[in-house]
Design brief:
alpha+beta; 6 helices; disordered N terminus; globular; two-stranded antiparallel ribbon
Length: 205
């Protein structure tokens, strides 16, 4: 397995400060726990980097609270482990955030997906090599030549939303980001439930 994870590829403009909405961080932690227990969020011991992230709309329109970069190893998160993305420009490859930590390396992708539909309220990006290998090209799938956390990946999710069942299912596989699977929902419960549901054996199997 080739690991390409955890490194911020966008230009980050980060203001170190407390997040303005601690209650949203508490909600993220509630749904992060089953994702962590399932191994969809976690930490690769070698080479020592975290994977997976979770976000929810918060603050002004267009803003969202997302797990901080390299927090996959944290067993129990709190308001010190999240960042509020206050603005972004996917074409210029810029993400502006406020928080005790910098926003996840996947913040650019989350921003692009929230932009697709105001009804999208939460996003989960998890890792499962077994699921990824079995679902590539079966679920809506990004181009294998496109890397995570880039303007090109943002464009790929726009394409999937326009041209595939991603709009209806809220599930996609990132072919160029090994083990990467993403879900969205109107709520955190829905977004997390979709990706956790992939781990359940099909009825009658």
């Amino acid at each position: 397995m080739t690991i390409d994870e955890g490194y911020i590829k966008y230009r980050s403009f980060w203001t170190q400060a407390p997040i303005p909405n601690a209650a949203a961080a508490d909600e993220l932690e509630i749904w992060r726990q089953p994702l962590l227990a399932a191994g969809l969020i976690g930490h690769y011991d070698e080479p020592g980097i975290g994977y997976g992230n979770i976000s929810i709309r918060s603050g002004e329109p267009g803003q969202f609270l997302i797990s901080g970069t390299q927090t996959g190893h944290v067993e129990n998160t709190d308001k010190t482990h999240y960042a509020l993305v206050t603005s972004y420009n996917t074409h210029a490859n810029i993400v502006c955030s406020v928080g005790p930590v910098q926003a996840s390396s996947e913040a650019m992708t989350h921003a692009a997906i929230y932009e697709l539909d105001s009804n999208i309220g939460a996003i989960v990006h998890g890792h499962s090599y077994v699921l990824w290998k079995s679902l590539v090209s079966k679920l809506p799938t990004t181009d294998a030549d496109v890397a995570y956390g880039t303007p090109q990946m943002a464009d790929e999710f726009r394409r999937l939303y326009r041209d595939t069942a991603f709009r209806e299912t809220g599930l996609a596989v990132m072919a160029g980001h090994e083990a990467g699977i993403l879900s969205f929902g109107t709520t955190l419960e829905e977004a997390a439930g979709k990706i956790l549901g992939l781990l359940q054996p099909a009825a009658g199997a």
